[in-house]
Amino acid sequence: MLERMCILIIDMLNDFVTGSLKCERAQRIIPNLRRLVEAARKFSVPIIYCNDAHYPVDFEVVNRWGVHALKGSEGAEVIPELKPTEKDFIVEKRVYSSFYETGLDPLLRSLYNGEGVKTVVLCGLHTNICVRHTAADAFFRGYRIVVAKDGVEAFTQEDHEQGLRYLEYVYNAKLMSVDEIIEEMEKMKR
């Protein structure tokens, strides 16, 4: 049972899906993520969008990946297919982890009428980078970690598979399909 779960959608942004840091493989997870988001809204499971929102001087921009997802730009917006609603939450990040120097942890602890989230469901981009580093920080903070194995992707199949193996082995992440996660949501409401 995935007790007090929350969906974390990581970097499903224009620049990562169709823009300057495009991941061709991102297209294959969009339909799954749409179903997951629709189910989460139906069953009142919180959704948090964890989005790169860089400044031009950030290390990732200057020294690693080049210009992408600049704060306030169209490239830093969530793709139209997964557009947040007014009930969803948005956390801006400047490095790989969705927890590092953001308000994500206090937000998670405030949900469910102050009882807090117990299980974070990770999805989005990239399995071996931002998903991995977010999982690390979730693990260090004591959250149960579920990875939507058909709701995450990476630049290559090798990177994706290596990322999943690492998440499962090191952070004891449970790898589940989007359908399995939706089934758990349905059980919660029975």
Question: What's the topology here?
Answer:
Blueprint: E1 5-10, H1 14-17, H2 30-42, E2 47-52, H3 59-65, E3 89-93, H4 104-110, E4 119-125, H5 130-140, E5 144-153, H6 157-171, E6 174-176, H7 178-188
Task: Describe this entry's structure for a reader.
With 190 residues, this protein is an alpha/beta fold. The chain has one domain: Isochorismatase-like (Rossmann fold, 3-Layer(aba) Sandwich), CATH 3.40.50.850. 36% of the residues lie in helices and 19% in strands. It is built from seven helices and six strands, in the order E-H-H-E-H-E-H-E-H-E-H-E-H. It has helices at 14-17, 30-42, 59-65, 104-110, 130-140, 157-171, 178-188; strands at 5-10, 47-52, 89-93, 119-125, 144-153, 174-176. It has a six-stranded parallel sheet with strand order 3-2-1-4-5-6, sandwiched between helices. Strand 5 (144-153), helix 6 (157-171) and strand 6 (174-176) form a beta-alpha-beta unit. The longest helix has 15 residues, at 157-171. The protein starts with a strand and ends with a helix. The mean pLDDT is 96.
Tell me the series of helices and strands, N- to C-terminal.
EHHEHEHEHEHEH
Main beta sheet, described? Answer: 6 strands, parallel
CATH superfamily: Isochorismatase-like
In the CATH scheme, the class would be Alpha Beta
What is the count of distinct domains? 1
The shape, in one word, is globular
In total, how many beta strands?
A: 6
Enter the CATH topology name: Rossmann fold
Distance between the termini: 12 Å
Could you list the spans in which at least 5 consecutive residues all have pLDDT below 50?
A: none
**Approximately how much helix is present in the residues?**
25-40%
> What is the average of the pLDDT values?
96
Strand content: 15-25%
CATH architecture: 3-Layer(aba) Sandwich
Structural class: alpha/beta
What is the count of DSSP helices, taking H or I runs of 4+ residues? 7
Radius of gyration: 15 Å
| Strands side by side in the biggest sheet | 3-2-1-4-5-6
